[in-house]
Design a protein that fits this description.
The complex is a heterodimer. Chain A has helices at about 20-30, 75-90, 100-110, 120-125, 135-145; strands at about 1-5, 10-15, 45-50, 55, 70. Chain A is of the alpha+beta class. In chain A, strands 2-1-5-3-4 form a five-stranded mixed β-sheet, covered by helices on one side. Chain A is globular and about 45 Å long. Helix content of chain B is about 30%, strand content about 25%. The model of chain B has no long low-confidence stretch (mean pLDDT about 95). Classes of the chains: A alpha+beta, B alpha+beta.
Chain lengths: ~160, ~260
Amino acid sequence: MRVELKVNQKICVWETTLCETLADALRAHGYVSVKKGCGRASCGMCTVWLDGKAVLSCTLLLCRLGGHEVTTLEGVQEQARVLGSYIVAEGADQCGFCAPGFIITALAMERELPAPISPETAERYLAGNLCRCTGYKSKLRAVMAYLARKDDGVVKKLS
Amino acid sequence: MLKLIALEKPDTLNDAFALLQKPNHIALAGGTMFQLGDREAVTGVELAHILDKEIVAEDDQIRIPAMATLRALETEPAIAKGPLSILPAAVAHLMGPAFRNMATVGGAIGARFSGSELIAALLALDAQVELYQEGMVRLEDHLRFPRKKDIILRVIVSREQGAAGLSSMRNADTDQPLLCAAVRKKDGVWRVAVGARPQLAQAYAEPVREYEDTEETARRFAAEFQFGSDMRASAQYRRLICPVLIRRAMEEALQCG
């Protein structure tokens, strides 16, 4: 069957099966920022935006998504680059496998919640994105520094 | 994993209901259980496009449509305070917001998800469900009946709730609870619901006894429930912590009320 949807502002018509997940389809079409971790909606690696809201693409069936709009990390590269620089500055990245899901969730939080966002609120929002390398404190510091930034292109460390 | 062999997109609720009466036809809501299901050769009946999503706050009740996501429930301003705030509290710990943006209220109830803290909270608040075929029924009765392939349209919760509280225990912050207790005190009656026992949540109601302290009452209420073992906790452990969770929920209710 065919499904027409928008991916990163681009209209795509993809052939799919009834059991193909959005995560598998995105990766097959070159959107490899989308990682598959648990494959059971538990780890947050496969997070993308569906109609502007963060969702877990490993459990969404592509055949149900006709007419919807998907945004992956490739579609928000500029913001991702800025947040990524804070993650690097805080040493919050090791293997990097969780980074795309983490970054796109953090950007969703920035879009969804009114500023200022407290560290407690950020911690709660990001709780569904698991990381097995760095722990979470450095990631939280990076996000808080990113949220507190002034857009002058200079990465500021909070700690 | 669920293995779909066909996907139906009915135009009306009537068509959807007719499809669901056929063997091996299942309703598709948020889709979060897709990877956890183990049925093969099923036909999915898409409901997302024919059911409401917007929560409606009226003067005397809150109408929560089946396709409202857990995240929408969590962020609904009309229930952020007061006794109904146990509803957002019941979903706020479940995975991350990305999961809660997908999982729906109707999906949790329709699947009779035994680990659902939300079902326990709704039972304590004596919520009603509006079904396409059966009409309005109490959630408690709907859960007790044998499974029928009716379509959940919405959940209705009265705003006149007295005082309510919720307490739960979990092994990890974003996991489902290993036990949860929700209570409501209204018109001189305690209504207690215990969920994730690990069986589906059940409710128990009893008039308030004067001159009985909270701890003793909680212990008596806990004795009304049965517990089982699973990978999260043993039946013995659940039996031990149940009075504590009920007492904490009662204390929260008494503080708020």
